[in-house]
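Hey, resending since the last one bounced:
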Amino acid sequence: MRRFSRTLALLLLAGLALTAVPADAQQFPSRPIKILIPIPPGGAPDIAARILGEKLNESLGQPIVVENRAGSNGIIAVEMLAKSPADGYTLALIADSQVVINPHLYPATPVNPMKDLVPVATVAANEFVLSVNPKLPVNSFAEFIDYARKASPPLAYASGGNGSQHHLSMEMLKQRAGIELVHVPYRGGAPATTATVAGEVAAMFAGSSTAPQIRAGNLRALAVTGEKRSLTFPELPTIGEFYPGYSNSIWLALFAPAGTPEPVLARLHAETSKALEQADLKEKYNKAGGLEPYISSREEFARRIAADHAKFGRLVKDVSIKVD
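The structure tokens again:
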């Protein structure tokens, strides 16, 4: 009788575990999914989300709605996501800066992405290209450094926002090269690119979205931030060739509100990873300017987030980044 009671208790516990998963999670998805983007249309996260959204639409059988919510270096989109229902129907495709850099720059914000968000799936990786307005009388990285060192007043450079990777990459270069530049933040990489093309500023670090402008001659590319030369621009040197140890790369990933059911996260991760393996998506990412699909397990990605958070915490302190 006791053995029967123990068996019955185990069965009841198993049944409770099964019913603990909300019915909506078991049927997920049953309606459109919204993906928030923390920048205006045209930047790398926006491009990556729209290409990925086409694939998820096919595999999940529901429309994927991309919604741009720019401002405050991604904080607006992150807060919207954190305050959304934790059901998998609102996601955000955000860059590393919104997750591992912003907490060091804006400690007083009501939302902490390290605690209030949960990673769903990695999406893409990229590096930055140092580009200048073609009217600037420099044709190489070495010439740019020499020109910037002598410029009076100092040259202005654009970024996608205070504390963005664009910003940090240039501040790192300023520190290593011993040059002075004036920072002009914009609300995302696309507006920063427009300003550089127009000649409002002299230079910028830019991601994949500027490749068409570079190929069209509207920007002049000088160097890349990766540890090795770019597949998209193999003729460009790495900055590390001039300043050993200098390197900076970025990642883009899908996040959901903390508390999203595990079955929903698992489904979204599996379908995203499957989409990133498809040849036509890889080709579209490459044509968009050298974006590379980034596939990782959620456990591996969680470890990278923790490591990057610590790394950029040290960098923000060392470079003395200040935000308005």
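The longest helix spans residues 298-319.

Sorry for the duplicate.
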